[in-house]
Structure formats: structure tokens, C-alpha cells
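Technical annex B. To support the medicinal chemistry partners, we prepared a structural model of the target in complex with nicotinamide-adenine-dinucleotide, based solely on the information shown next.
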Amino acid sequence: MGGRLAGKTCLVTGAGQGLGAAIARAFAAEGGRVAVCDIDGDKAAAVATAIGEAASAYELDVRDEAAWAAVVVAVEAWGGAVGVLVNNAGIDAEGLIEDGDVALWRRVVDTNLTSVFIGMSVCVESMRRAGGGAIINMSSVAGLVGFPTRAAYVACKWGVRGLTKTAALELGRYGIRVNSLHPGPIRTPMTEHYPPETFRDQAIDRFGEAEEIGRMAVFIAAEATYSTASEFIADGGVMAGRAMHD
Ligand SMILES: NC(=O)c1ccc[n+]([C@@H]2O[C@H](COP(=O)([O-])OP(=O)(O)OC[C@H]3O[C@@H](n4cnc5c(N)ncnc54)[C@H](O)[C@@H]3O)[C@@H](O)[C@H]2O)c1
């Protein structure tokens, strides 16, 4: 099958729904073989089944280093060395700094930031065997500014941005590009409760759709061959609006 990701094995975390599922579908539509990974194995299986032969499902808790190692072995056996890695899995969580909920902080950091470090470190060897590749780390507009009530989430998304730049510098010599993706509000199960006012200050005053992020991920993985350590923003212009009002 042709396509911009033909012959590439792509591992996507948190791909049981939302952005990860859309990215998995977009990669498969471009000829990629997609390892659909999620902590919820049933959801991963449903997404992989809907994609068809080009996809395979794996239950993976991204906080678990040993599970990562086992999944990469299984993915290689299924589809060959990993050429594209998308560290997408993440959770949202609300809480004020003054509440001092350290357990919540640790849960968010483990899931949204430490997981990205583990995922990259475990996949490097496989990506080297693939002859290089592309890593996309899911940050957010919350990795560009602050948001009240979201200290842990924001700290993780800024952390992902810095980790991405460092990884790009370390892994360039292996032909591995590493970039961060920064969506604004995209319609997924994580955000469906957002009120209409959310879009008030945006140049494009609507939710983004997960497919729009899927297409951007294809671009970063397949077309952006001179981009590494870069921030790819898809936010409907929300950051420009913030700058005006701040
Ligand atoms: N939706 C948005 O507006 C938006 C904006 C910016 C950034 N993001 C980021 O994009 C990513 C995906 O967001 P989404 O909106 O699709 O969320 P979502 O909640 O709809 O989906 C997240 C998926 O990750 C999985 N997951 C959660 N914890 C996991 C773990 N420990 N291991 C493996 N999988 C796990 C869930 O089972 C779920 O399938 C997240 O990192 C999120 O922070 C989302």
C-alpha cells in the first residue's frame, strides 16, 4: 500500500479514544502499520479492529517501564522496528496549588511526563534499528502558558516541551527527529464538557476536531523532515487571543 507512512511501524499511546485514536487512523490511512496502545485494552482493540489489518492492539499503561519494554518487543515481532512513536496518553486533573494535593500531582506527573521519558528511552533502540524516525510528544497550549487550577497538567506539558528539545539534541545523531504537538481545545472525551465561552477569544471560534490533529501528526511524522525540537501548534488562534487580553 502506498501513502506517506508506507512501510513505517507507528506506536501510538492513549490510542483507545480521542486524539490518539484519530492519529492511529490517520497513520493507517497513509499506509502505516499502527500499534494502538492504551491502558484500556478493550478500547485499543476496538480502535484496531475498526482500522483493520494495518493495526494491532496492545494494553499498555505508559507509567509502567516493564510493560513498555514488553510491548515494544511484541510490536517489533508484529510489524518490525518502530519508526514513529507518539507519546499521546495523558490525563487532566483539577486542583489549586494551595490545596497541596501531592498525590494528584504525582499521578499526573507519572502519567503525563515520566511516561514520555520512559517511552522515548525504551523505543530508541528499536528506532535505531528502523534506521531513524520521528517522535511526537503530545504537549498542549498548556505547555506554552499557565492555566489556573491546572498546576500539575501545565507543569507536565511544559516539561514535555523541554524534554522534547533535549531528546531532539541527543537523538539527532541517530536520525530521530523529536517534536512536540500543542493542541488547543479539541473535541474528545477529555474536553466534551467545555462550555461555548471556551472559544470566545479564538480566531477560529469552535472546537478543533481530532482528525485535524491526526493530519498534523502525519505532517510531522512524514513531511517535516527538517523540523526537530520544534513546537507544532494547532489551537484555532487561542494563544494570539490570550496575548491580547493578558
Ligand atoms: N483534547 C484536547 O483538547 C487536548 C488539548 C491539548 C492536549 N491534549 C493532550 O492530548 C492527549 C490526548 O488527549 P485526549 O483529549 O484524546 O484525551 P482522552 O481522555 O479522550 O483520551 C486519553 C486516552 O489515554 C488513555 N490513558 C490514560 N492514562 C493512560 C495510561 N496511564 N497509559 C496508557 N493510556 C492511558 C485513556 O484510556 C484514553 O484512551 C493528552 O496527552 C492530552 O493532555 C488534549
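Notes passed to the chemistry partners:
Strands lie at 9-12, 33-38, 55-59, 82-87, 133-138, 176-183, 186-187, 208-209, 231-234.
The CA atoms of residues 99 and 149 lie 10 Å apart.
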